[in-house]
């Protein structure tokens, strides 16, 4: 089992936790005491980190649990790292599609190096061909007015930190390792409730400069939006595929349709999701 893919191992651990087999800290126990010293050489960094914290994996067990590690969804790009916005290029974990339905160990670094180089080169070529483009003042004024309205609200006792913790719990419990149509629907309602709660929070700090409370608020806005996008797009794919595991009456059902991508966009304040066939080489989908 320890040599299984990450998604399968995470689901196995998750099933043990749901069955009430959790340890004192909510995890299961990793036992590496039977491994030869040569095996630890492949995990030298992790082994040393554990030693620094008083845990020797050669003669002790460690309590572990799944956690969010890598986002395989993201901005859609083509082979030149172009997005659907002219002049905007993207690479790395912020993009979607490069890893397919599952990511192999170590591919994150290769993604950054390969596509980062492509994005940089293509962005430089684009910049050399166009004149400097200014930012629309009307858009800046709209955002200025929005932020000023936020700062003008009377302070409230509710804090963004508590709301962010609630977001973590919603995503873990309903959009986590194992999903279902019911859990995703439940998450959508809870996330909408969080969005409403956030809009009612008033900040104690009123400064435009060096205001960590304002920064935390804006981060929470984006976190909720990303959570809604993940839950909404996950609900479109009814069967399991890769790391996306749907729990249903036929738990072993797999997605056998022709390859397709789930595309999601924000249209007039509403998230719209749809399945589209996987595009071929050189294709860019325009909204």
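Sequence proposed for the structure above (287 residues):
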């Amino acid at each position: 089992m320890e040599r299984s893919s990450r998604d399968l191992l995470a689901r196995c651990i998750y099933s043990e936790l749901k069955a009430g087999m959790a340890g004192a800290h909510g995890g299961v126990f990793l036992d590496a005491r039977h491994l030869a010293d040569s095996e630890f050489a492949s995990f030298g960094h992790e082994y040393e980190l554990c030693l620094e914290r008083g845990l020797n994996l050669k003669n002790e067990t460690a309590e572990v649990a799944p956690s969010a590690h890598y986002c395989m969804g993201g901005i859609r790009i083509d082979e030149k790292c172009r997005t659907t916005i002219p002049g905007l290029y993207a690479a790395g974990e912020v993009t979607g599609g490069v890893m397919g339905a599952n990511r192999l160990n170590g591919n994150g670094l290769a993604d950054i190096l390969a596509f980062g180089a492509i994005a940089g080169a293509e962005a430089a070529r684009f910049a050399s061909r166009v004149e400097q483009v200014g930012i629309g003042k009307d858009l800046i004024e709209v955002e200025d007015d929005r932020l000023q309205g936020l700062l003008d609200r009377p302070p409230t006792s509710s804090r963004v930190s508590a709301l962010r913790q609630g977001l973590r719990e919603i995503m873990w419990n309903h959009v986590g390792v194992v999903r279902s149509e019911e859990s995703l629907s439940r998450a959508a309602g809870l996330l909408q409730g969080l969005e409403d709660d956030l809009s009612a929070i008033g900040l104690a700090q009123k400064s435009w400069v060096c205001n960590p409370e304002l920064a935390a608020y804006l981060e929470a806005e984006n976190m909720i939006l990303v959570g809604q996008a993940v839950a909404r797009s996950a609900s479109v794919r009814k069967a399991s595929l890769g790391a996306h595991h749907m729990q249903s009456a036929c738990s072993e059902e797999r997605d056998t349709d022709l390859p397709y991508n789930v595309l999601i966009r924000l249209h007039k304040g509403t998230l719209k999701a749809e399945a589209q066939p996987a595009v071929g080489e050189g294709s860019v989908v325009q909204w």
